[in-house]
Amino acid sequence: MNPSATSQTPAQVSQFIGEIIADALRPDPILSVWEWADEFRRLSQKSSAQTGRYRTAKTPYWREVMDCLSTHSPVRRVVVRKPAQVGFTEVMNNWGGYIIDHAPGPTLFVQPTVDMCKRYSKQRIAPMIEETPVLRAKVSEMKSRDSGNTILEKDFAGGVLVMTGANSSTGLRSMPAKYLGLDEVDAYPHDVDEEGDPIDLAVARTLTFSSTHKILMGSTPTVTGRSRIDTAFDETDRRFFNVPCAFCGVMSPLVFGQLRWASGKPHLAEYECASCSRMMQNYQKEEILPHGSWVPTAECEPTTRGYAINGLYSPVGWLSWGDIAVKAEKAKASTSRMQVFVNTVQGESYAMSGETPDAHRLYERRENYAIGRVPMGGLFLTGAADVQADRIEVEITAWGRGKQSWSVDYIVLQGSTKEETVWADLTKVFEGTWPCEAGPEMRLMRFAIDHGYASDRVVDWARGKGSSVMMVKGDAKAPSVLGASSPVEVGPMGKKIKTGLKVWPCNVGFVKEELYRWLNQNKPEDGGEYPNGYCHFPQYNLEYFEQITAEQLVTKADRFGYKTSHWEKKRARNEALDVRVYNRIAACGWGLDRMTDGHWARLEAILGMHAQRLVEAERSPNTVTEDQPAAAVAPVSAVSPSKGRRTRFRFTQ
Fold first, then answer.
1. Which class would CATH give 33-238+298-309?
2. pLDDT for residue 404 is more than 60
3. Ranges for all domains in the chain classified under CATH 3.40.50.300
4. Which end of the chain is more exposed for a tag (fewer CB within 10 A), N or C?
């Protein structure tokens, strides 16, 4: 209808004007975050393996979560406990795009650190804006000065998206926020710049919008008892995604315990329905996921929702059930790998075992092999030293298939560590050889020494001894048994010498937990096979076993109310535990965790052939490889470890 046309009557003109007014007063159509994403999002090859239009149908389990983040939903707080490779990052990206285009307001997204925030902005937010026309039209280009578009800040009509790190108190208190996204909260510090908990600081920014704010908190969990996302999830209605069986239709959540595979064929894993016992194949996820629904298992205030999911839900083409089974098999190799699997695949916190082994039980299961002699089964040797003011304590450990270990010798070198004599004695131990029941004598492949006490003396001793010596230092932040080494020697200009001696940070908490799991294993009956990691000991006295079990894992709440776990002594003397931990680190440094059946077979062949020489280049390989066999055999004519020592002490009766 054209109101300017001369043919229109006054009544028609009045009707037309009424339609315009009604259209202006009509509220915007209800639009969910996922509906916005399906209509407008385009995935960039810079940030996604799958490019093109975003499709919620690919990950249907996120539809309800994105509904809760939409403006029409009464939900104010959403908590997501998740693994890797299930598409959660795109949920936060979709929410950010939805806010910019459809529901503008001040928005704060928090990553664990400012550096991670910059990467997130460059790799996720910037490509999303660039590839989505409705966003590109509302966020100015970064080329112009004072454009309002920087790495950590995106201005748009009616709002701003600020990105900061949980390690920056300034960023956390920079602005009021209607929308707050907290990503990977388990990696946040418990205190930032002595101003308090970063989550509390960030949530305080939403108080201005007390009735309209929304908070999204998501993370992969870490350790049971100190996981932030576990604590937050426990305060929600705890929803799990139930899917129908492809055969009987019974609804239930996917759980790792129902994954089945034949021995040696984890890549062919199937999922057994707990109701009808029929086996579903990975490709059938395309059939069952679209019909799933979130089911609450607890009660909480209606404005809060909690969602937990695991890697079994990962869409076809991403992480398959076979991939998960392969990862599960590999995770058995070490405690650190198992924690990574539980966290990033099962999407659950890892329960550290702080159960202290019984010293008397270990004492009673001692074996009768000779102290100072490598028993059958030991295929390479490590040594470790703990430095005290008046002595250096050393343990020699043999390692074999399945990470079995044998304590070969325990030596206490008496003498002040301020004097040269005791360090000379340590050199004799390091350069010594040990007789082996297989025939030839063995020398040490790696030697770990604690850098935490008398560090200058330790550096002086380690200098010139090559990569066989590892200076180690406990670091609870190390991601696994060994972290990345760092130089410790300083040049004339005060700068660290990159090619000089290095210190290896090590997560002794991981190693102690692994060791205690191993020590708690039972000796097989009737000649059965020893379990992986089984620890063998000669006829040491009870004091040794009291020392190796001298600590326990204790969980306490810190001043912010968050639980933390740490190892505490039960008795004063614990050197036997320390040197066994360092031996495990030394074995890791030589390649224990990477060794295959081929590597073990090669070592067995070397011992079986009674080789009479040791190639020095093979003594300290950085990596044990198929084309470079590891050598563990030393010349029979080498100096015996029992000769030339100033003091020798064993835990004998």
1. alpha beta
2. yes
3. 33-238+298-309
4. C
